[in-house]
Amino acid sequence: MKPLPLPVRVAAGLAVTAVEQARKLPRQLVGLPVTVVSEALQLSMRVQQTVTELAIKGDDALSALRPADDEPEWATFDEDGEDAAAGADPWAEEERALAAEPPAALLDYDSLTLPQLRAKLRGLSLADLESLLAHERAHAARPEFTGMLSRRIANLRAQS
């Protein structure tokens, strides 16, 4: 018996493979969503890695064209502050802030809520408000309290 031509044998092999795959399809469909999500996540991570690698290579190439700044604009140091230039002792300033107590008018300041404090602000002097602000910054440093006190101080200064 003479063997069948190669294209016929390949076609028969493809048909058998298609039938086998069709029989496996119901089992594969159950895991398909997980497989698709996994493949998508892997692809996105590979894309992110490639983009990061390209950015690093670009930074390296461009760094040769641009001289590096000795000190970036955003970098600040304790020595750069105005207090250091004026010769003020930062430790003494911190001690004053820590020693700042609320004015006698508001001895219960630390237990007040924001609305309770707001109700009492109009009766305080500028010096009392500044004392409260220093106390707040040195102790709790709650943004809503410091903001409200700062605005009240600014309003009083604008009025005088």
From TrEMBL:
<feature type="region of interest" description="Disordered">
    <location>
        <begin position="73"/>
        <end position="97"/>
    </location>
</feature>
<feature type="compositionally biased region" description="Acidic residues">
    <location>
        <begin position="73"/>
        <end position="83"/>
    </location>
</feature>
<dbReference type="InterPro" id="IPR047728">
    <property type="entry name" value="LipDrop-assoc"/>
</dbReference>
<protein>
    <recommendedName>
        <fullName>Lipid droplet-associated protein</fullName>
    </recommendedName>
</protein>
